[in-house]
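Suppose you are handed a protein chain with no further information: no name, no annotation, nothing but its sequence. What can you learn? This example shows the usual starting point.
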Amino acid sequence: MTQRLASDLLAEAERALADAGIGQPRREARWLLAHALGLEPAGLLGLGRHAPVEADAFVQLVRRRSARVPLAYLTGRQGFWTLDLAVSDATLIPRADSETLIEALLQARQDRGQVRRILDLGTGTGCLLLAALAEYPQAWGVGMDLSEAAARLASRNAAGNALADRSAFLCGDWADAVGLPGGGFDVVLSNPPYIPHDDIATLMPEVAVHEPMQALDGGDDGLAAYRLLMPILARLLAPAGLAVLEIGIGQATDVSRLGTEAGLATVAVRADLGGVDRAVLLTRTS
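A reasonable first move is to predict its three-dimensional structure. Written in structure tokens, the prediction is:
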């Protein structure tokens, strides 16, 4: 093992990350050092800049981050809403933009006893379902994902956030999702793949190279998943149920049209903190 001064390691890491085009290289260097030492980032304050630390693991993390491996994949953790989630390269990394769906749901269903049955299609880490369950304490939910590794990770996240007793995670295709006796789900959440295929190569390397392609690629126009999803929603929603879907830039009109063609009505479109339309809310028309 090689020991180095923490101050020297951080300075070298900051330069390497900046040269690699990483935004906020100083902050990321500190996060990586804390992770390598098994500390929370605030724990570095008590360590002292001139403390000798074991360098090898940290240097390897900096090399991987300089190669544009996402920070969350290196630390294995990501915050979302009120949750602390495990992440892996089997899933998209939860993003603040997706919290717009939870905000929209809370505004549309303010009575916390009104939501009892929730379905999350393409659950990934389970972030949407688990955030909704945390806000609706009388609800239970099911998350589905094509990836068995994602479904297993979501199940672990449910346990880690004390929500395992109100959730179940299944590996399967959306078309395999089954309805419920008594009228269907009160809420269906989904963050489907919506990036047009030819646009994926233009994304930052953290996304284009490292995040799972099946969770990104929305086909030629970015709408392929919605064409599959809308008839499923019409079948799975309860009569007064609500679907809350994440969308990409400029997709609100097309997604609403696809919903109309499947017997769904758009009741709201919600923008994220950047002012981009990010969530479409739909209900059954009959």
